[in-house]
Amino acid sequence: MTQADTPPSLAEALHQDALAVNAELDRLIPLPDGPERVVHEAMRYSSLDGGKRLRPFLAMRSAALFGVAEDAALRVGCAVEMVHCYSLIHDDLPCMDDDDMRRGRPTCHRQFGEATALLAGDALLTRAFEVLADPATHPDPAVRCELVAALAHASGADGMVGGQMIDLRASQFAQDMPAITRLQQMKTGRLIGFSCEAGAILGKAPSQARLALRNYAHDLGLAFQIADDLLDVEGDAAEVGKRVGKDEDAGKATFVSLLGVERARAQADMLAEQASRHLDMFDERAVLLQAVARFVVERRS
Ligand code: GRG
Fold first, then answer.
1. Is 0.70 surpassed by the pTM of this model?
2. 18 ligand 1 Cβ < 6 A
């Protein structure tokens, strides 16, 4: 293997992909002249230059398993990041979590006001589907339709929005492990699942490969959420970039409140390891996806 063939380290790959995502989002969310400009400013404020870009990374690196063109994978990565950013804007609103800080700076509604933040979230969501439906994303309309349907399913009432609804009503339901697992799979797992499966859709991958990615995403999503719960208990607000201790203050059951810190950490580690093993069929082509499973449980933000 020559130096040019040497795979990048995970940190390098995450950094490179985040730069590419920033540049593409900059192109996909231009600033027009005219009185509507402020909503574009708010969209850019909440989507450019921030976050780990985990979901685009998953989409881009799963697409690479099937030799998908990088520009197509990047567009899909940006679409899922737009949906993620919309969900963060709306989650921070006074009618939801009422948060002041996100990604280390004032939340969208703190910066632009509530009405503009609401519209910026709506516009990011709709822009995401516009990007997927564009022939630049894939020449085959059937692939574009599948991407649109899969992202809609993952982010709508049967996925992320449904999970958020259950979360808002959590005090009215049993908060045991099956209930919390289902809630979190819907709220955060489905979008992570879409990100991983998007590569397989773009690459028209065979069913066995799709199943492997689906299983990987399932375990990764749970590991991610347990790590998020641990950060809420053990994390430092400055490092995490948002308020911590929210779950306990809100009296919400989490993986950590149900299992305790030690067992929750052990469960996250086990899931990360299991996620990684689901990708063994891809050999060394999957090393970065396998490494990101460890990163997800070891991260500090
Ligand atoms: C309002 C429709 C609607 C949905 C909100 C995803 C969500 C549902 C709310 C986010 C609240 C939250 C903190 C959930 C925990 C898991 C999560 C999505 C954390 C943030 O994702 P990261 O860590 O964030 O990938 P960055 O900033 O790195 O992109």
1. yes
2. no
Mean pLDDT over the full length of the chain = 95
Q: Which residue out of 57, 93, 118, 187 has the highest number of ligand 1 atoms within 8 Å of its CB and is therefore the one to mutate?
A: 187
Q: Residue 176 pLDDT more than 80?
A: yes
Q: Using one digit for the tens of pLDDT, what is the confidence trace for 213-252?
A: 999 999 999 999 999 999 999 988 888 888 888 878 888 8
Strand partners for 101: 106
Q: Whose alpha carbon is nearest atom 24 of ligand 1? A: 51
Q: Which of 188, 190, 232 to mutate to test the pocket of ligand 1 (most atoms within 8 A of CB)?
A: 188
Q: Is 92 in the pocket of ligand 1 (CB under 6 A)?
A: no
Tell the burial category of 170 from Cβ atoms under 10 Å away from its Cβ (0-12, 13-18, 19+): middle
- For a mutational test of ligand 1's pocket, the pick from 25, 53, 87, 155, i.e. the residue with the most ligand atoms closer than 8 A to its C-beta, is 87
**3-298 — its CATH code?**
1.10.600.10
Q: Is the shortest distance between the CB of 51 and ligand 1 below 6 Å?
A: yes
Closest CA to 150 of 121, 122, 129: 129
Candidate from 21-25, 203-207, 208-212, 244-248 with smallest mean pLDDT: 244-248
For the chain, the domains span: 3-298
What count of other Cβ atoms lies within 10 Å of the Cβ of residue 156?
A: 12
pLDDT of 1 higher than 80 = no
Q: Is 293 helix (H, G, I), strand (E, B) or coil?
A: helix
